[in-house]
Amino acid sequence: MVAGKPRFELATVVLDCADAPALAEFYRRLLGWEVKASEPDWVLLRCPDGGTGLSFQSEPGYQAPVWPERPEEQQKMLHLDIRVDDLAEAEAHAVAAGASLAKFQPQDDVRVLFDPAGHPFCLFLH
Question: Are residues 96 and 56 in the same domain?
């Protein structure tokens, strides 16, 4: 700890959605992570190896972001970058888990997909 500065550790990224248990189940299948805590409107996943977790929180007024962004429409606030060993295999696995491939792909070495709640996420090679 630096003198005069409290310790900070990013513990969890929380994704808002319409149905927290459903979105958590998608990411559980995608990543193979474990459910560590669950309530009706909130679920926490943790990587078995440790590190930052993912939580999902149901929000009654949730609106899926639009990507690529367009003026006057719901903007994304963040997206997840997920490193993979094989892009084609990872894309197929993500789609089988419930993701959909974005029509617009900005790069050949990255795949942009949407989770079931409409959040964009990127798969990229190591």
Answer: no
